[in-house]
Amino acid sequence: MIEQHTIHLGTTDQREPVTVVIELREKEPVAPKLSIDLEPVETMTELSIVGEVWMPSRRDIVQGGQCVETIRAHRPDDKDVQRLCDIWDRWHLNGMMSGTRPQQEAVTEWMKGRERYDYLDASEHLKSLGLLKDRGYSYGASWLCEPLPEEIADELRAIVARLNQEAA
What we know:
By secondary structure, this protein is an alpha+beta fold. 36% of the residues lie in helices and 24% in strands. The strands form two sheets. A four-stranded antiparallel β-sheet has the order 1-2-3-4, with helices on one face. It has a two-stranded antiparallel sheet with strand order 5-6. The protein is globular and about 50 Å long. It starts with a strand and ends with a helix.
């Protein structure tokens, strides 16, 4: 099952419409069907969020996809938009995690201050920490998942409802 929501966030100073599209997908995780804690997972909710900044004519997008910082900057004082962006940063594509929890935490810490991710460099960093292989799982060998907590899904639905009511 796919639950989809579109939020209209007004326009930029250049009259470009701004939208955010959220999908909550109930699905089976891909093989090996394990969480980032290496526990079996049969079904999960995967979160996908994309932003869209359209030409004023709406004929094409000017910017789209993972433009979370653009969305943050568009509504910097809106607590709901900022919380939506926090959830986006934390949970987007939670069914496609390349490492276990300790591996993910080590890479996240290592990434602070870096502009871009590089798999080979991240792997070398994990190797230097003795984490390239964690409990038999080699970093990047397959997709692990981190099931979306129901309270996060509920919080997203509430944010969508408030923002869409505000836009109406």
